[in-house]
Design goal:
The protein has 320 residues and is an alpha+beta fold. The protein is 30% helix and 29% strand. The protein starts with a helix and ends with a strand. Bound molecules: biotin.
Length: 320
């Protein structure tokens, strides 16, 4: 999309109605030139009404995830400044890892988004499924300048970023340790951070996020949900823009080594703390009450025996 067309789209998104005259003045173009850009937007699937004597009204946007449409919703700094959209791929995490390995120079903030994945990856070796076009499926490439031992705040940071982004759309979500996003007690969004690192150096991190928007697959083990089921119907480009903005803000805290602030926000939105939980670890199952997260982002559980246990990896079931 031409940058001027993106600019016009931004103005249409910001106002209920914009006159051709105002657009022409703001952009220093003739009204005929404005009309051409409006026609281009229409040909891309935007519904734009022309109200005589008033101006242009953006009535509907296509549910597309192309960079130009996402950029119409926010002003990217690093994260999401470059967005690659693919109709289909195996896994956005796998593709982005591949790009990171092949790149001659760092591609900080590069975002890969797709409509469908044939081999979506979930945590702990599971698959992640979503019907075509039903979910927001994307990955972001980051280069944290810390050793892997200091990356614990990163996955919790991503959960916080998603919750805060959804709050700006009026959606109230919570976090289940380590970083599942829940809506009305059901899983809405999963996050998978994959790291390439040496002992004392992180090469890169691919942060993958899958958020159910207009549908969710019937999962066996977990009760999941999507935004439409909860009566909320934002366009995926807008959700992506909000999440990328929120990731930029929260990642800045992480880079400033203000992980405590991220953890405080995590606690605030937690769906886990203070509740009875069963934790499924590779070593077996533990039951008790989730008390807190530690300064390393691990889950502190008081077991039924009274023993305090620090859980660094596992799946948590929250008992209601
Ligand atoms: C989980 O809850 O198990 C994590 C799921 C993460 C899924 C997302 S979808 C986009 C990105 N690409 C992948 O292959 N996985 C993540």
């Amino acid at each position: 999309m031409h940058p001027t067309t993106v600019h016009i789209l931004q103005l249409l998104l910001a106002e209920d109605c914009v006159s051709g005259e105002d657009l022409a003045r703001e952009l220093g173009l003739s009204r005929a030139a404005i009309w051409k850009h409006i026609s281009e937007l229409r040909s891309l699937g935007f519904t734009i009404a022309a109200q005589s004597g008033k101006g242009y009204v953006l009535q509907n946007c296509p549910d597309s995830l192309h960079q130009a449409l996402v950029h119409a919703h926010f002003a990217p700094r690093t994260i999401g400044r470059q967005i690659i959209y693919l109709d289909e791929c195996d896994s956005t995490n796998a593709r982005l890892k591949h790009l990171a390995e092949e790149a001659a120079a760092p591609l900080a903030g590069l975002t890969l988004v797709t409509d469908r994945q044939s081999a979506g990856r979930g945590r702990r070796g599971r698959t992640w499924q979503a019907g075509p076009g039903e979910a927001l499926l994307f990955s972001v490439l980051l280069y944290p300048p810390f050793p892997p031992s200091l990356l614990h705040g990163l996955t919790l940071m991503a959960g916080v970023a998603v919750v805060e982004a959804l709050a700006t759309l009026g959606v109230n979500t919570t976090l289940k340790w380590p970083n599942d996003v829940y809506l009305e007690g059901r899983k809405l969004c999963g996050i998978l951070a994959e790291t390439s690192a040496e002992l004392d150096h992180t090469n890169y991190v691919v942060l993958g996020i899958g958020l159910n928007v207009s549908g969710h697959p019937p999962l066996l083990e977990q009760l999941s949900t999507d935004l439409y089921s909860a009566g909320i119907q934002p366009k995926r480009a807008e959700i992506l823009a909000k999440i990328l903005t929120s990731l930029e803000e929260n990642y800045a805290l992480f880079l400033d080594q203000r992980v405590d602030e991220i953890y405080d926000k995590w606690r605030l939105h937690s769906h886990t703390l203070g509740r009875r939980v069963t934790v499924h670890t590779l070593q077996g199952e533990l039951s008790g009450v989730a008390r807190d997260i530690t300064s390393e982002g691990a889950l502190l559980v008081t077991l039924d025996s009274g023993e305090e246990k620090i859980v660094t990896a596992g799946d948590v079931t929250v008992r209601h």
